[in-house]
Amino acid sequence: MSLPASQRRALDVIEGELRASAPHLASMFGIFTRLTNADGPAMTERLRPSRLRAVVIRLRAFVLIPVAVAMVVAGVVVGGTGRGVSNPSPPQRVTQLAVPGK
Questions:
Q1: pTM above 0.70, yes or no
Q2: Cα→Cα distances 73→63, 64, 66, 80, 98, Å
Q3: Residues 6+ apart with CB under 8 A from 28
Q4: Could you please report the per-residue DSSP string of 26-74?
Q5: Residue 101 region, left (φ>0) first, then alpha (ψ -120 to 50), else beta?
Q6: Distance, CA of 45 to CA of 33 (rounded, Å)
Q7: Per-residue pLDDT at 84 exceeds 60
């Protein structure tokens, strides 16, 4: 597995700082690398989805889809039956002010 140049440089900087600050730890990493070099890359484990997760997915499908459909139908019914004011009359213009006492 090869890394991009920027990540390789970052790892080289970390390695240099580790060798300078903790030479004993750096030598232990070197020993670990030599011992595990022949093992190859680590195997990945394939996990099955849990039963709880499968139940939650099914529950979402059986509950959320009908709720969404019901909301759309309700919106159509409410929006289609109401008689809204499509052209409201303009506000009346005030020509005289009623002043109390005059």
A1: no
A2: 16, 14, 10, 10, 50
A3: none
A4: HHHHHHHHHHHGGG-SPPPPP-PPPHHHHHHHHHHHHHHHHHHHHHHHH
A5: left
A6: 22
A7: no
Q: In the 8-state DSSP scheme, what is residue 46?
A: P
Q: Report the interhelical angle of 5-21 vs 23-36 (nearest 10°).
A: 130
pLDDT per position as a tens digit, 1-58: 578 899 999 999 988 888 888 888 878 888 888 888 888 777 888 877 788 888 888 8
Tokens linked to 38: 């022949």
What type of residue is 74?
A: A
Judge contact between 26 and 18, C-beta under 8 A: yes
Angle at Cα 33 formed by Cα 44 and Cα 14, nearest 5°?
A: 95
User: Which string of DSSP letters, residue by residue, matches 66-101?
Assistant: HHHHHHHHHHHHHHHH----SSPPPPPPP-----TT
